[in-house]
């Protein structure tokens, strides 16, 4: 198990992990028709763009399994919500289903927190669907529920919980 900063050439595998993890994680929470239409091809350009931005306040790390295959990623940066009161935000954390529960997520979060600390961020925030089992993962990692909002995905209202770490 290893963690490294994502490289531009990782865009195809990041698109694959992103789509596959959405399809397994959100099945039963988000409409099947929406999940079924997601494709790796539809995410390729977005990942190319994200990995080529050179934004100093955006970090993307990948986890690799014992065979050196990318099996997950985390992305975060400066808090996107004005007035939220937090410095940094986890934008996305996804792992292939067969690699969940093995410590990859914890290692990815801790790696991102270290990057945040090294860049002067002292607090952190993440949004997670209220029914997502990952919500408990974030709580175990020290996040506290601080807010809720409704998100519309494919015409369906889904409740999200904002979890925060006041001190990293």
TrEMBL record:
PROSITE patterns (alphabetical): GNAT (PS51186)
Q: What is this protein called?
A: GNAT superfamily N-acetyltransferase
Q: Which organism is it from?
A: Paenibacillus favisporus
- The N-acetyltransferase domain sits at 1-166
Q: What is the lineage of its organism?
A: Bacteria, Bacillati, Bacillota, Bacilli, Bacillales
Pfam families documented for this protein: Acetyltransf_1
Q: What are the record keywords, sorted?
A: Acyltransferase, Transferase
The record, for PANTHER family, names: AMINOALKYLPHOSPHONATE N-ACETYLTRANSFERASE-RELATED-RELATED (PTHR43877)
Q: Which InterPro entries match?
A: Acyl_CoA_acyltransferase, Bact_Acetyltransf, GNAT_dom
